[in-house]
Amino acid sequence: MEYQKADRDYIRLSIAFEGRAKQANELLRNFDSISELFEAVKNFDSDILTMIKREQAEKLRLTASDVYIDDFISDLEKNGVSALTPNSEAYPTELKYIADPPFVLYARGKCARLQAETPFAIIGARRCSDYGKKVSAHMGCELAKNGVTIVSGLAYGCDSLAAQGALSAAEQKYPTAAILGQGVCTAKTDGTAEIMEAIIENGCVMSEFLPFTRAATYFFPMRNRIISGMSCGVLVVEAGEKSGTMITANCALEQGRTVYAVPGRITDRMSFGTNELIRKGMAEPVFSAEDLLFHLGINPECSKKSKLRGRGSSELKLTGNQKILFDLIELGEKNFDEICELTQFPVEVLNLHLTELEFSGLIKQLPGRIYTLS
Fold it and tell me: Which DSSP state fits 189?
């Protein structure tokens, strides 16, 4: 990928401010352009030290070196990372118009594909209920089948299940996007690493933080504005009254995005946030995937039932644990305990992958938690 001078200047700012676009913009208000800022840095302009800390000025001085930027870009390429700036065709269009858009999105995957689809965010609680898990996977799958790009933060729980649901729309192969609160080359440690790799194969994983940045709590509110900013709308599946999910919902409203919420029981703590959004008129209630598709102006496709009997898991393009489970159930119907004993999967992992296969239409659950092919 070739980077022009303007792109390189954006990358310089990204390195110096480590993704803190708001702080960088405050400095830029003192200059007519990014180029003028770096000219002042190269000339050791002492006025800069009155605007920012010395440590920050030293970082700017370091990144002003062309050799330094050449080496940085070379490292990106070695790790399969692209630097998307506002000048890049693959940079999400809607993101350019939010307050303090990221100067650079470091990306892995097929990012150009995202521009051709309708981006829509599905978010929710990490510690979601069984109902929240099913709704997240179902919505992700049904929207993806109808050409919607599912955007999420890929956190464990509702986010990752929505992404998995989208990926499980196997024959559709629409792209999926994940926005991380860490670097795109840093290992995920919350049980979502496998999903991240699947997204890279088919869609795109992005972050405004440098590629090997470790996750930090205060990064997530910064990341949330990107999730909502690049999406045409946001669905909140489950959320506590005060949570990171509610921060994203508020970001979306501030950015003029429509927020949707799944109503829940008034006694469920993970529904306090969604019910409150609906009660205050801040979110549209959603009762089905068709509701969302209608709001997005999309006519649901008439899906044909797949002829699954006799088809191998390789034909269905399943990956990892999904393939193991499908092959096992293809041999004959089995109950949950049998599957758990035969696969030795942890209960949480088994529940997750069985739900994926159900919402893909590949298997169905019979009374007594017995699973068979659809």
Answer: -
**Has residue 222 got a pLDDT over 70?**
yes
pLDDT score of 314 more than 50: no
Give DSSP secondary structure letters for 122-162: EE--SS--HHHHHHHHHHHHHHHHTTEEEEE---TTHHHHH
In the chain, the percentage of residues whose pLDDT exceeds 70 is 91
Note every long-range contact of 291-297, with CB atoms under 8 Å and residues 24 or more positions apart, other chains counting: 291/260, 292/120, 292/139, 292/143, 292/233, 292/235, 292/260, 293/142, 293/143, 293/146, 293/148, 295/233, 295/258, 295/260, 296/118, 296/120, 296/148, 296/232, 296/233
In the numeric block, the tokens 């118009």 are attached to 97
In degrees and rounded to multiples of 5, residue 15 shows phi and psi of: -70, -45
Q: How many CB atoms lie within 10 A of CB 74?
A: 10
Q: What is the pLDDT of residues 21-42, one digit of tens each?
A: 888 888 888 888 888 888 777 7
pLDDT for position 309:
41
Name the band, by pLDDT with cuts 50, 70 and 90, for residue 73.
very high
Buried/exposed 5-26: b ≥16 CB within 10 Å, e otherwise: eebbbbbbbbbbbebbbebbee
CA distance 63 to 303: 53
How many angstroms separate the CA atoms of 354 and 340, rounded?
A: 11
| Phi, psi angles (nearest 5°) of residue 126 | -70, -50
Q: Tell me: the pLDDT tens digits for 119-143?
A: 999 999 888 889 999 999 999 999 9
Cβ 228 vs Cβ 252: under 8 Å: yes
Which residues are CB-contacts of 125 (< 8 A; sequence separation ≥ 6)?
132, 157, 158, 237, 238, 239, 240, 243, 245, 270
Is residue 123 a contact partner of residue 89, using CB atoms and an 8 Å limit?
no
